[in-house]
Design brief:
Keywords: Signal. The protein is of the alpha+beta class. 21% of the residues lie in helices and 25% in strands. The chain has a 6-stranded antiparallel beta sheet with strand order 7-4-1-2-11-12, with helices on one face. Strands 8-5-6-9 form a 4-stranded antiparallel beta sheet, with no helix packed on it.
């Protein structure tokens, strides 16, 4: 019994300490400017950034924890029923549809026969294809337990900016509309310090 208790305790610590980054990119190949939710635990859904039409690809980074990326229907930027599944640390096209999502510890949204899954996992323009669920499975409610808004935007040069304040919509729009130099000059007041960036698991 003691062994089982410690095994369960260790598993619980592992789950609660999980840290994932859900990053939306403005390019179509997971490079350049981006908006991200950081330090996410399991089943915490990353909401859409302001002006999601600016974002064309998505990648979910892990600090070593296992999991499945669950892409959900986005209704006004929220997280709804399961629509696609994917792997961590892979780049996915996020156009038509734009998906929000979260990391799950299980494949509960994929309780379907393998034959029912569209197996198109070949590279599409260098990207992985999301694996769609069957119609019946897609109607399942997601396992999302809570939601998080993007807390950081990152320029193509790798500088991170805090978007947790009231000007987040303006900052996010400027990220798409201003040159890198103009954006960095305008928003130096919300530039994250190296310590702040590292606390979120970002490269300083």
């Amino acid at each position: 019994m003691k062994l089982n208790f410690f095994v369960l305790a260790a598993a619980a610590i592992q789950v609660t300490s999980a840290q994932f980054t859900w990053r939306y990119y403005q390019s179509g190949s997971c490079g350049g400017s981006s908006s991200s939710c950081n330090n996410l635990g399991y089943n915490i859904c990353c909401l859409a950034p302001s002006s999601p039409l600016f974002y064309h690809s998505v990648k979910v980074f892990t600090n070593g924890q296992a999991g499945v990326a669950i892409f959900t229907y986005s209704n006004s930027g929220g997280c709804n029923g399961c629509q696609f599944a994917g792997s961590l640390d892979h780049c996915y096209n996020n156009d038509n549809p734009f998906n929000t999502g979260y990391v799950s510890t299980s494949t509960a949204c994929r309780r379907i026969a393998a034959a029912d899954v569209d197996e198109r996992t070949q590279a599409l323009d260098g990207l992985m294809a999301k694996q769609p669920f069957t119609h019946a499975s897609a109607q399942r409610a997601s396992e999302c337990k809570s939601v998080a808004e993007p807390d950081t935007v990152t320029t193509a040069s790798g500088k991170h900016y805090d978007v947790t304040g009231p000007l987040k919509d303006v900052i996010t729009a400027d990220l798409a509309n201003l040159s890198g130099a103009d954006f960095e000059a305008k928003w130096v007041s919300v530039l994250r310090t190296p310590e702040s960036a590292r606390a979120l698991g970002l490269s300083a």
